[in-house]
């Protein structure tokens, strides 16, 4: 099939590359000339495992092209995906101007039938607006050309996006015509393993499905984070609680890891956006608002543990392991590390940090500052530090030589923001250990009421 993708951001690029990989002829279009030039040279602007290889392979085979020419892009694909950004407005609602601009562009250039599919995460009802903008652009030309609109939300995890696209749990397709359904069924047929993964539904339900999935997942995390706060206060170990509740199939082991708050480009934004959508329609969401509040609070937990240990943090040096919002990405959007660094700087502390992929991004965001030293290795980061905080659970941080780390530090204090270490093992190396909701495991002796 001939496919056009508007937007070469994270979602657009992964979608374009993976659809080319399954045999389609794909054109990716973006208004950013520099980005298109770099992509054409084979430079991938984001770090995503496996992506570079499939972009290279498919560019070489001629199935994947990049352009800034919208007219050429509209002429190419029968299926036109909109995967441009929907940045949050001041009130947290998604800003649709870029999505609707693309719809008008398609309407201004198309010469025969087009199926226009929103891939970006957009509020419920956006497909209707896309239809309107497109229809208006077509009518303004005094022509009458048929088109369909559809919603096909993505469920890609950063760091595993290629894998998620190639082996989806499900493909959600929202349509209002058989013609659109058949096009999308055919497009995704190569990704069905053993059984049909495509779930066809009406457009608004598909739009809501994306938010619903992310909010259920975000809720699981905030609920566990809240339970971890309780565990700390009653001297229980949330990790033992987690293993025991996960054994109940109705709860399950996935996404019940307590930590230092969820970040990234999806969960925080989607939680806010759905609350906004409901609010505008006169429904005040309660659980969804609480998910956000609990998460904001949880992002303070690392600083609170340091402050509780040291009292005054001014003049202290704190080592951070991990800056990206999660492993296998260089994405720093809404990362707990940012909240921690800001709080430390406000308290007069200095930060030494190391992340396997996000150093460049951290430098871009914070620039040169006296109270931030970006280190070349994990070992360098702990040199003369008063405490070490594990913020992102990258694989390389999992089994450090704790005795060596302790020798390098001024004081062996460890705050484990992801509960990846065994408290008794770390304690053997001389560390004072603080986990998330693990006061019992750390041997705390607080009085229980
Ligand atoms: C998420 C969804 O998983 C994906 O389906 C959607 O399309 C986009 O949003 P992503 O943001 O890449 O993907 O990250 P994900 O792996 O889901 O993690 C989100 C955040 O939750 C991270 O900050 C992670 O550290 C945190 N998390 C996850 C926890 O704190 N505990 C958990 O048990 C799981």
UniProtKB/TrEMBL annotation:
Highest taxon of source: Bacteria
The protein's Enzyme Commission number: 1.1.1.22
Catalytic reaction(s) noted: UDP-alpha-D-glucose + 2 NAD(+) + H2O = UDP-alpha-D-glucuronate + 2 NADH + 3 H(+)
UniProt-listed GO biological process terms: polysaccharide biosynthetic process; UDP-glucuronate biosynthetic process
Gene3D superfamilies (alphabetical): Cytochrome c1, transmembrane anchor, C-terminal, NAD(P)-binding Rossmann-like Domain
EC top class, as a word: oxidoreductase
Binding site for substrate: 155-158, 210, 255-259, 263, 326
Residues where NAD(+) binds: 30, 35, 86, 121, 158, 269, 333
Domain UDP-glucose/GDP-mannose dehydrogenase C-terminal: 319-423
Pathway the protein contributes to: Nucleotide-sugar biosynthesis; UDP-alpha-D-glucuronate biosynthesis; UDP-alpha-D-glucuronate from UDP-alpha-D-glucose: step 1/1
GO terms for MF: NAD binding; UDP-glucose 6-dehydrogenase activity
Keywords: NAD, Oxidoreductase
SMART domains recorded: UDPG_MGDP_dh_C
Active site: 266
Listed SUPFAM superfamilies: 6-phosphogluconate dehydrogenase C-terminal domain-like, NAD(P)-binding Rossmann-fold domains, UDP-glucose/GDP-mannose dehydrogenase C-terminal domain
Family per similarity comment: Belongs to the UDP-glucose/GDP-mannose dehydrogenase family.
Protein name per the record: UDP-glucose 6-dehydrogenase
Species assigned in the record: Salinisphaera shabanensis E1L3A
């Amino acid at each position: 099939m001939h496919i056009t993708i508007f937007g070469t951001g994270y979602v657009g690029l992964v979608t374009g590359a993976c659809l080319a990989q399954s045999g389609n002829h794909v054109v990716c279009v973006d208004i950013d000339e520099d980005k298109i030039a770099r992509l054409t040279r084979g430079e991938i602007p984001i770090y995503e495992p496996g992506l570079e290889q499939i972009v290279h392979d498919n560019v070489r085979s001629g199935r994947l092209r990049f352009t800034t020419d919208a007219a050429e892009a509209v002429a190419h694909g029968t299926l036109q995906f909109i995967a441009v950004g929907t940045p949050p407005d001041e009130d947290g609602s998604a800003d649709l101007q870029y999505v609707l601009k693309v719809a008008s562009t398609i309407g201004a250039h198309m010469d025969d039938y087009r199926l226009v599919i929103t891939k970006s995460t957009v509020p419920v009802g956006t497909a209707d607006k896309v239809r309107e903008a497109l229809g208006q652009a077509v009518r303004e030309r005094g022509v009458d050309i048929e088109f369909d609109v559809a919603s096909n939300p993505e469920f890609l995890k950063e760091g595993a996006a290629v894998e998620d696209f190639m082996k989806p749990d499900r493909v959600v397709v929202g349509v209002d015509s058989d013609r659109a359904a058949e096009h999308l069924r055919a497009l995704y047929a190569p990704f069905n393993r053993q059984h049909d993964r495509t779930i066809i539904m009406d457009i608004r339900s598909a739009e809501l499905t994306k938010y619903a999935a992310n909010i259920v997942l975000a809720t699981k995390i905030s609920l566990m984070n809240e339970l971890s706060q309780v565990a700390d206060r009653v001297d229980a170990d949330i990790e033992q609680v987690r293993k025991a509740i996960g054994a109940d199939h109705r709860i399950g082991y996935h996404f019940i890891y307590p930590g230092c708050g969820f970040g990234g480009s999806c969960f925080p934004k989607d939680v806010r956006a759905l609350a906004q959508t409901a609010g505008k329609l006169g429904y005040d969401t309660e659980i969804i608002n609480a998910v956000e509040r609990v998460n904001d609070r949880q992002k303070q937990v690392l600083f609170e543990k340091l402050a509780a240990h040291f009292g005054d943090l001014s003049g202290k040096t704190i080592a951070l392991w991990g800056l990206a919002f999660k492993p296998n990405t260089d994405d720093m959007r809404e990362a707990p590390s940012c909240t921690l660094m800001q709080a430390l700087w406000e308290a007069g502390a200095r930060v030494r940090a190391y992340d396997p992929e996000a150093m460049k991004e951290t430098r871009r965001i914070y620039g040169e500052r006296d109270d931030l030293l970006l280190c070349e290795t994990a070992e360098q980061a702990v040199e003369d530090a008063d405490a070490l905080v594990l913020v992102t659970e990258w694989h390389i941080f999992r089994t450090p030589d704790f005795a060596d780390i302790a020798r390098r530090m001024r004081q062996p204090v460890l705050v484990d923001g992801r509960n990846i270490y065994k408290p008794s093992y770390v304690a053997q190396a001389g560390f004072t250990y603080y986990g998330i909701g693990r006061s019992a495991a750390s041997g705390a002796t607080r009085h229980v009421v």
